[in-house]
User: Fold these one by one.
Assistant:
Number 1:
Amino acid sequence: MRHQLFNIDTALITDRCVVRRFREGDGKAFYKLLDNNRDYLLDHFPYLMAEAAKNRKDAESFVRECIAEWLLQRRYAMGVWHNETTELVGFVQVFNLDWGVPMGELGYFIDKELIRQGIMTEVLARVVRFAFLQLELDKLVIKTLVDNYASQRLARRVGFSREGDLRQEYRLPSGVLVDLMRFGFARETYGE
């Protein structure tokens, strides 16, 4: 365990959102978010849909696993809560952590009603800062489907650079293998 991570922030503030660690009882709100975005998420986050979107109990179990993994320093999963509505509107996580480098991968989505409003840009910028300055990671990566242009633009907007393509790296729920595009961001190039 990395003792310096015992006192990191569990809530990050942006202009329009609070990005915070999940708490017991957040499963109901998380299930609602997943259910409202089911069609999009089935293609982009099938593992998440399989684990958490069957019913509210599974969503609550997923939330509690996220809490445990945070405490065990295995994954830092957070809900994105909108300041005005106080509703859960997104999800972001630093996962696939390799403490030997140290590096991690970012995964994220926002409610379909809030796409292209700049909310996820401010959320990711804040999470990148958290990952570099508090988690003390030296590198972050984002992997997107090659046709997910919105996510690729978002990655570039917050400072990531394209590193290459990963051929037949991801299996869609239909069984088809597709390519991913990998983006990276090194802490040495991060300027607050």
Number 2:
Amino acid sequence: MIKGVMFDFSGTLFRIESTEEWLAAILAEAGLPLADEEFADWARRLTEYGALPGGAEPLRVPAHLEVLWHERDLSADQHRAAYTGLLREAGLATSELERALYDRHMTPAAWQPYPDVEPTLRELRSRGIPVAVVSNIGWDLRPVFRAYGLDELVDAYLLSFEVGVQKPEPEIFRVACDALGLAAADVLMVGDDRTKDGGATALGCPVQFVDHLPVDQRPAGLAPVLELLDGAGGR
């Protein structure tokens, strides 16, 4: 029987804004207009280098950033250094713009919850099923949940930069299950990454995958979670 649920953050509960929206917001704040062609070129290069945290991954990670990239979610400093390094490799921004671009992705305005997140979390709460958010991340995402009125529906946050372990290592899922006070076999892991989120299976957790799609293209991606609970006698 499923007695608790762990959710990934990016691509599962929330979606980051597009590279174009991200860039446009910072250029507007900086009072730095670009011609359409130049803007499109900036957006293309930022996408190619994977410079937007939570967005597309780099097509290629420069050799001098490889170790930092793979360990980026273990600390706030490593996360900032990794993405600032990619911004610098893109060769577009001043140091001031680099800071502004990096800082933007940590604001609630840069994120949007999927349409069924709040109804799903409220239904889980009404059933007495505790929820943990388990995320590979280098910053505190709690303000994003608070901004959307969802923080009260989350019982525990297990963030890699705080725990010191990244998914798919089983330890981060073990800590989450302990935080919920449940055996691993009774906790469902929901995520969009079959490798990282799939690491929960090493503990015996059931896993449900969702598609990492734009918000308007995934209106009911979490429906299988409640279906699983109903099928497992979760009511």
Number 3:
Amino acid sequence: MMKNMENLPRVGVGAVIKDDHNRILLVLRKRAPEADHWSLPGGKVEYMETIEAAVVREIKEELGIDIALDQLLCVTNHIIPAENTHYVAPTFLAHIVAGEAENQEPQALGDVRWFPLDHLPDRLTMTTTYALEYL
């Protein structure tokens, strides 16, 4: 039996970007899944794109920064039946190599901020919470 392509799992990528002050960069989502929650920056993997290239591209598009990937941190099962969402989400540790983080997608992101690891906002996405457990 063939499944509807819209109901297949997708691949999304994200990055824990740390600075020299032990802070991480988070974005406030405006759209589902998990609208109005703080999230790691990232996005969807395009056809024939590696997960590494996707996370670098997505973060450049979202925040206008160039990042270098340090390592794969974890892989999250991002499954939210109420939002008809099913992503497999590899998450990387990364650092900025050029640029200052600025919101390049105000239609999708409400805010971009650095947070100390010991003072994170309350409303974190599922993938962010999971990645921070591995950090």
Number 4:
Amino acid sequence: MSTRPPKFRPEAWLASLSLIAICLISLGNVIVRYATDASFAFTEEFSVFLLVLLTFAGAAVAARHNQHIRIELVEHHLPKPALKVVYVLQWLAGVIVLGVTCWYGAKLALEEYQWESLSPGLGLPNWIYVAWLPLLAAAIVVRTTQNLIDRLRGNEPQEVIHEP
């Protein structure tokens, strides 16, 4: 049995609910298509949106718990003071990329709102879909920063296993 604490963060809930919704929408569409030879019109548009939501929310959870894929060869062979510099450089690279994503995502959402553009499938306002991009990119920055603080203090999460 696992001894790690449960991940009851908003991002974990959002990712879980998105995955459940994708499964239910897809299952419902398959059943309806099999029974009636027709399909729901909204399934693809909502499924793509929920998949993006799931990806970014899951990335925030992974960022908080130091579970992102990275090359750790350098980390294993550095002394502690140099290791802290690497942690800060990793954090800085992530913050730059996510900051740019957040900035341009917010600009895109604002433009979609101002232009009143509609989605091609259902005709819903596009900004509803796009507004989640800067919000979740900012959430990843916050979780990455929390992870950096933990790593600089020497508090690695329990579930991270580093093999020698």
